[in-house]
Request: fold
Amino acid sequence: MPRKGRLEEIFSKALHSFDDPSLYYVSYRDLDSIVEVSLPEFVTLSENFSLIPAGRIVSVRRRSEILYQKHRAIPP
Reply:
């Protein structure tokens, strides 16, 4: 059985456990800016994760705790 990715695991727990999904915030790249929205709003905007691919997600946080952060290599 394939293992879930980190993002899939976070979203699955937030959406399908007893936790409140509105406590989660997703930051994603939109052209030249970073947009932050609540997880329920992100699910709607991305049409259930089909319009905004996981590669554009920069970070996910629950309240002030960062659960996922994409690290980009800074060119020299």
Remarks:
- The first helix runs from residue 6 to 16.
